[in-house]
Amino acid sequence: MNMPQPYIPERGIDVIERGRRARKGRIGLDLARDVTFSTEALESYAFARWEAVVCDALVVAAAVEYTDRAVKRPQSAWARRLTVRIPVHDLPRWQNPEVSAALHEALGFLTGDFWHIEFVKRRSDAPSPSQNYLSLPVPTKAVLAYSDGMDSRAVAGLLGAALGREIVRVRVGSKGWDRLNGSVEPFTKVPYDVPCDMPHREASSRSRGFKFAVISGVAAYLTNAKEIVIPESGQGAIGPALITAGHAYPDYRNHPMFTMRMQLFLKTLLGHDAKFSFPRIWSTKGETLREFVALTQKDNWSSTRSCWRNNQWSAVNGKRRQCGVCAACMLRRVSVHSAGLTEASDVYVCTDMTAPTLDKAIDPAFTRRSPVFREYAIAGVLHMEHLAEMASPDAAQLIKRHALFLGPALGLESSDAAEKLAALLARHAREWSSYVESLGPNSFIRQWAQFRV
């Protein structure tokens, strides 16, 4: 008997230059109107090796991000068919079969969609950055993909102590400039922005991994760095690929199996072989934080942000907070507890995790309570819980299967990767159990959680 095939939505996007129109039946993304390139941010990318291919790569990243947001996933399935046409300066380079194959392989693996990207010749050259080129004071050994997160702050401190100015931070989030000092710094901001306020937009945002990898790869190319450092600790890099919900495709945004594919794409496109590295992948977030504080004696980790929720959904009396219960916030709270540190209660919307119910845990001044907020809280607890359950003997075969692919992506034997992954998950389970126990017997978190070491 023939089984019914799942519905796969199809949509086409035309990236267009000024004065051009999208083809009939396709969404237009106007480079002059919709994609905002920051002059100041682009100037922070201005080195003597600036080339048109850099601009093309950023436009491709912008087009992928916009397409991912604009096309809603079906309710009962995951995949979409996405066709994108993009104008570029160096058409033969982008039409190279090796470049095309590597690009489609990386995008398909990352998002779980069927992509078809075609390129056409640009009709006019894009403006280049100011001729006031930046120069780095010392040769660059590595670039660090830097966001507002706790891992970024900690790993920047740990590697900075060893490499000094030979490591350059590359901003892969757009929340602020975070300058090291008053002087002009390289790579201080994401150089472009695309509209995200379209109706019925897709919220999974899997393409962010591609955006961040392209930006980091461009920075490595411009500085001739041979290493791109991904600061994620093990729970953040590997955990989302191990634990999925419903029909969702595994989340590989910070996973070595994805960066391995991006390394090949960037090499075929730019001719520059920069290796992605994960110096904290076998550490928990709590271990990374504890080591950073012990080495630097700094408390600036507390000003970082982990929450997935935006200001609209996590503000109290007009002041932005972290929600405190999404998966990212739960991991942060577990990590701070594991590191033996504390945070002020008003960092979060949920101020009292010892409360018997979620409603009582929430700051009374918070006005955006909704079923969606509760769903985020349940999902956050269950993600931590299910990741802890992966430390049980029942999950041993699944760990070995994942390690078959994870090991080669990290240059390890699969058996070594399986051993390291099992040890990481065991430490996560202990940290999670310790945190839940610390909340007392009446906490709603303890009521929702079942796993114990």
Detailed description of the structure:
The structure is a single chain. This protein is α/β, with parallel strands linked by helices and 453 residues long. It folds into 3 domains: 10-121, no CATH class; 142-189 and 208-277, Rossmann fold; 306-448, no CATH class. Helix content is 42%, strand content 11%. The chain has helices at residues 39-43, 52-70, 91-95, 97-111, 150-163, 208-223, 234-237, 239-242, 256-270, 285-296, 327-338, 358-361, 371-389, 396-410, 414-438, 444-448, and strands at 10-16, 27-30, 36-37, 81-88, 114-121, 142-146, 167-171, 192-193, 227-229, 275-277, 315-316, 319-320. β6 (142-146), α5 (150-163) and β7 form a beta-alpha-beta unit. Mean pLDDT is 91; it is low at 176-182.
How much strand? 5-15%
Radius of gyration: 22 Å
Helical residue percent band? 40-55%
- Lateral strand order in the biggest sheet: 2-1-4-5
Tally of domains: 3
Q: What's the number of extended β-strand segments?
A: 12
Largest sheet: 4 strands, parallel
Number of helices: 16
- Structural category is alpha/beta
Rough outline: globular
Which runs of at least 5 residues are low in confidence (pLDDT < 50)? 176-182
Indicate the mean pLDDT: 91
N→C terminal distance: 46 Å
* N-to-C order of helices and strands: EEEHHEHHEEHEEHEHHHEHEEHHHHHH
